[in-house]
Amino acid sequence: MSALENRVPPLLVAGLIALLMGLSGPRLPSIELAWTARLTFALPVLFLGLGVCFAGVLSFRRARTTVNPLQPQQASVLVEAGIYQYSRNPMYLGFAISLTACALALASPFTLLGVVAFVLYMNRFQIEPEESALEALFGESFARYRARVRRWL
């Protein structure tokens, strides 16, 4: 077990990576695009990411279980309905999509490495410990769900 497992709120991780992308983007090679063109590409992607996040939160609220990613052992229900039929981690997927929107707005392909870093971090330090906790809580039900629904998409 690592000291980072389920310790840093995923929203903070996404925010820090977005900040790093924003600080480094202007210093990295970029595609020459007008700001309006950048926003034309980035805003729909951002809204998609926010919508995916919201759908995940809404599914948890409807099931009346915890949304707190730092305490997965407090889950009272295994949520398999709504967007959770398509992704086991729609909130994290939504963050990754939103970070992709940041990269599009910055128009620097190198900033996409921030999205890769987010996915790698989340897989190792958030999702793996969460899945262990859910398997301990829900046993075979979670194993069947995990076999049926992909981690990201």
Automatic annotation (TrEMBL):
It is found in: Endomembrane system. Keywords: Membrane, Methyltransferase, Transferase, Transmembrane, Transmembrane helix. GO terms for biological process: methylation. It comes from the Bacteria. InterPro entries: Phopholipid_MeTrfase. The keyword Cell membrane does not apply. The chain crosses the membrane at residues 39-60, 92-121. GO terms for molecular function: protein C-terminal S-isoprenylcysteine carboxyl O-methyltransferase activity. Its EC number is 2.1.1.100, 2.1.1.334. The keyword Methyltransferase applies. It holds the Pfam family PEMT. It is a multi-pass membrane protein. PANTHER family: PROTEIN-S ISOPRENYLCYSTEINE O-METHYLTRANSFERASE (PTHR12714), SLR1182 PROTEIN (PTHR12714:SF24). This is Isoprenylcysteine carboxylmethyltransferase family protein. It comes from Pseudomonas spirodelae. The lineage of its organism: Bacteria, Pseudomonadati, Pseudomonadota, Gammaproteobacteria, Pseudomonadales.
